[in-house]
Amino acid sequence: MKRCILFFAFIFSINSYSQDIQLRWNKDLGTAKELSKAGNKIILAYFTKDDCKLCQQFYADVFKSERFKTISDNFIFLMIDGSNQDIKSTDMNVIKQRRLIIHYNKTASFPALVALDKDGEVIGELITSANKEDIDSYIDFLNSLIQ
What we know:
InterPro entries: Thioredoxin-like_sf (IPR036249). By secondary structure, the chain is α/β, with parallel strands linked by helices. Helix content is 49%, strand content 18%.
């Protein structure tokens, strides 16, 4: 009986792992560029805010989609958090995040996603739309970059 329980627990754990990949998010562009150069991978910069419901839905629609899971190993992930935009903040992490938003997301739209090359140059366009057709089209675009 114990073997049977262990067997099903093992199968369940494998199934759970395969359904939800864990992405390794960086918060520093310099680190993301180093990893991109070392692994010859494209950087995906994701702009989000903690209290943004649309950001949470966008995250699920893009990063948890089966289509994205099949290509996720080809990217370095950079999360740019726009939650704290206090212009008077002296926290270096907040300042760095704000600078990335100003440079790569000029409209300060959340959620947003943009591909960057190993030098931090934009590839394609920033996607700010959370509708299914635009997300599918962007995943097609990402797929074209890795072929």
